[in-house]
Amino acid sequence: MNDVVARAAELLADHRESIDRLDAILIYTLGERFKHTQQVGQLKAEHDLPPSDPDREAVQIARLEDLARRADLDPDFAKKFLAFIIEEVIQHHKKISGEQ
Ligand SMILES: C=C(O[C@@H]1C=C(C(=O)O)C=C[C@H]1O)C(=O)O
């Protein structure tokens, strides 16, 4: 292996190490987020509140789009990512309330 190829392999390994570390942060962060949303689901079920809250979601989407711009992340991607997570949360809330 020449020096250039060896250096590229080193850089690749460094990037992959960072990616693995950040993926772990994402997973643990999502785990924490779901613990809170499960508690919200319990509260909603106990007080007969609907599983979804579109007004709250609109505020969250606007906030995340703004954060994404500041973080050099595509705001459309941030919006789709949040929508994907919220959809899963709403399914959990429906299950908790016995609606599903
Ligand atoms: C967690 C809630 O329930 C739903 C899920 C949300 C979320 O995952 O952030 C946001 C709004 C609701 O549609 C909530 O009402 O706060």
From TrEMBL:
<dbReference type="GO" id="GO:0009697">
    <property type="term" value="P:salicylic acid biosynthetic process"/>
</dbReference>
<dbReference type="InterPro" id="IPR010951">
    <property type="entry name" value="CM_bact"/>
</dbReference>
<dbReference type="InterPro" id="IPR051331">
    <property type="entry name" value="Chorismate_mutase-related"/>
</dbReference>
<dbReference type="InterPro" id="IPR036979">
    <property type="entry name" value="CM_dom_sf"/>
</dbReference>
<dbReference type="GO" id="GO:0046417">
    <property type="term" value="P:chorismate metabolic process"/>
</dbReference>
<dbReference type="Pfam" id="PF01817">
    <property type="entry name" value="CM_2"/>
</dbReference>
<dbReference type="InterPro" id="IPR036263">
    <property type="entry name" value="Chorismate_II_sf"/>
</dbReference>
<dbReference type="GO" id="GO:0004106">
    <property type="term" value="F:chorismate mutase activity"/>
</dbReference>
<dbReference type="InterPro" id="IPR002701">
    <property type="entry name" value="CM_II_prokaryot"/>
</dbReference>
<keyword id="KW-0413">Isomerase</keyword>
<feature type="domain" description="Chorismate mutase">
    <location>
        <begin position="6"/>
        <end position="97"/>
    </location>
</feature>
<protein>
    <recommendedName>
        <fullName>chorismate mutase</fullName>
        <ecNumber>5.4.99.5</ecNumber>
    </recommendedName>
</protein>
